[in-house]
Amino acid sequence: MTAPVILARPRSFRRGRPFGGRPNRRKEELCPAPTQPADREAPAELDRIVGVKGKPVGGVYQFGIARRDHITQSGMSLDPAGPLGAATGVNFQPTGNGKAAITGDFVLAASEVNPVIRALRTNGIEVTALHSHMLDEQPRLFFMHFWANDDALKLAKGIRAALDQMANAESVGRSPEMK
């Protein structure tokens, strides 16, 4: 039997500093206060491209997009889908000069996973995770997380391209190019 190995903490931790040895930064430096879009028309344009009306929440413009199909878990209905985590969520946070950081997750049927990955990657949006939240939901759902920081309208078009690959609620029309 070998003796347990005891690892020493890096000196930077002992001084209360991150690995780089720099002093801890203030919260304001790490998470600057959200900025408002300079263009007051930006949210309306995002709504038009995405195909649903978003809402501003603390400097982030959020979209919730319900699926068209009825979802059940263990025989119980997951209605309304949004508050129960079975709706696609998309968040835009302005980062300056017409750009936005976007993140969120798509709620997908198995047949939608690859087409949505293709649409996101084609539009410069990174897929960061793919997993399931439930065990016996019907239809079987997968949750795909994404992230990007680029021109807000370009990213909105990428989100729209991904939504066009999904069975969304009828209120979320197809983009004009897909009709």
Task: Name a few traits of the molecule.
6-stranded antiparallel sheet; about 180 residues; 3-stranded antiparallel sheet
Structure, described:
This protein has 179 residues and is an alpha+beta fold. It has a single domain (37-178), classed as Alpha-Beta Plaits. It is 23% helix and 29% strand. It has 5 helices and 9 strands. The protein has helices spanning 11-14, 27-30, 42-50, 110-122, 152-163; strands at residues 55-57, 60-65, 72-73, 76-77, 88-96, 99-109, 126-131, 137-138, 141-151. The strands form 2 sheets. The protein has a 6-stranded antiparallel beta sheet. A 3-stranded antiparallel beta sheet has the order 4-3-8, with no helix packed on it. Strand 3 (72-73) and strand 4 form a beta hairpin. Helix 3 (42-50) runs parallel beside helix 5 and helix 4 (110-122) runs antiparallel to helix 5 (152-163). The N and C termini lie far apart (70 Å). Mean pLDDT is 78; it is low at 17-21 and 25-38.
